[in-house]
Design brief:
By secondary structure, the protein is α+β, with helices and mostly antiparallel strands. Helices cover about 30% and strands about 20% of the residues.
Length: about 140
């Protein structure tokens, strides 16, 4: 069993909720934390950081992925998203596209502070995704 397979959701939950407490969300007041598990069992966390120029904000999932890539990680097995919402919240569309770049088979877990939980695969959330494989040109006729 790989180190990643040994790693349960408990460590991911702890990392995601800890990151969520550091979220900067003065406009939406919707704090999010994310914890991304790589194939070697390492966990990378991120939180949402809003900006008065809304397009300049960063979601927690993308923040976690950027931290992972900066540390040299490239293969991932699971992401856990933590919120204070009433219902588990899947990643937004932009985050789904961002995650599929590195992990089309990613397991996505969403949990709430009240104990709600939902699970999907990234393929379920983003069917027929635009991936790097689509950029390959076919041979000339």
């Amino acid at each position: 069993m790989s180190p990643a397979a040994d790693r349960g959701d408990d460590a991911l939950r702890e990392a995601a909720f800890a990151a969520m407490t550091n979220a900067y969300a003065p406009y939406s007041e919707f704090r999010v934390g994310a914890a991304l598990l790589d194939k070697n069992g390492r966990i990378f966390a991120g939180c949402n950081v809003e900006n008065v120029s809304y397009g300049g904000g960063i979601c927690a999932e993308r923040g976690a992925m950027m931290a992972a890539v900066a540390a040299g990680a490239r293969e991932f097995t699971r992401v856990l998203v933590a919120t204070e919402a009433a219902e588990p919240t899947p990643p937004c569309g932009l985050c789904r596209q961002f995650l599929v770049e590195f992990a089309p088979d990613l397991e996505v877990v969403s949990v709430t502070a009240r104990g709600g939980e939902a699970r999907w695969t990234l393929t379920d959330l983003l069917p027929a995704a635009f991936t790097p494989a689509l950029l390959r040109r076919s041979p000339a006729p």
